[in-house]
Amino acid sequence: MESAATRNYATLTGVVIGVVVIAALYFGKEVLLPVTVAILLSFVLSPLVKLLRRINIPRPVAVLFSVALALATIAGIGTLVATQVVELAADLPRYQLTIEKRPMLYVLPRLSGYRS
Predict the structure, then answer these.
(1) Structural domain boundaries of the chain?
(2) Phi first, then psi: what are they for 46, rounded to 5°?
(3) DSSP helix/strand/coil, 44
(4) Residue 66 near residue 45 (C-beta atoms within 8 A)
(5) CB distance 21 to 32 below 8 Å
(6) Quick check: 57 and 63 in contact, CB under 8 A?
(7) For 38-56, how does the pLDDT look when each residue is reduced to its tens digit (9 = 90+)?
């Protein structure tokens, strides 16, 4: 049988290890995030590189092409999102007026006694 002190020690050890791991991840995020993204991209681009290798394209060329294609895709999506955000920001005053007037469309008829 385990004593209460042993169980408390095991629980305390688990909590301390958890806190240390979370602190390490938090303070290491500047290094870990790019490494994680690079690993994920390598898994995503690996099938394309293998396909290009099957059609007798040298590995360095296949890798460069895959990375260039990935960067172009990311840049294209980023440009699309940025364009949408800029358009939304330009329309914000119109949306603000619409939101400010909208409650009055529902309140005024009720105040005047009009029933739909």
Answers:
(1) 4-111
(2) -60, -45
(3) helix
(4) yes
(5) no
(6) no
(7) 999 999 999 999 999 999 9
